[in-house]
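Here is one chain, start to finish.
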Amino acid sequence: MNKRLVWIRLAYWAGIVADAVVAIFMLVPQWDSRLLGPDIVSSPIFELGIRRCAALMIGWTVLLVWADRRPVERSGVLVITICPVMLGYIGYLGYALLNDFASLGRVVPSLIIEVMFIVLFMAGYLNARKLSAQQKESNLL
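Its structure:
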């Protein structure tokens, strides 16, 4: 298999696995009380909202599976995943930190993970662009 294609598919499948795990925690927010804090998770309003968001997370997981079926042609999904999805989450983390909803110790690990995913998704996207250009060039020859 082409090395570039491996990077593209790695980006998709890292996102698929991560989103599926997060969706499970969103469906059962009590499991995530250590990260979020028991005072947040115990709120019925929070539980209702986070479970509603789980449907969107599951939808995004399915979108990444769909994009992986044609990884080069659908590589734009990786960019859309970076912005607005991941950058929006980073903004949310900043808001939570600045408004004392979360401590720095709780925010930094999530920021590190998000930056790692952004780098991986961007690498996947750039590899898809290069592979697409190579395919177009070979078709012209």
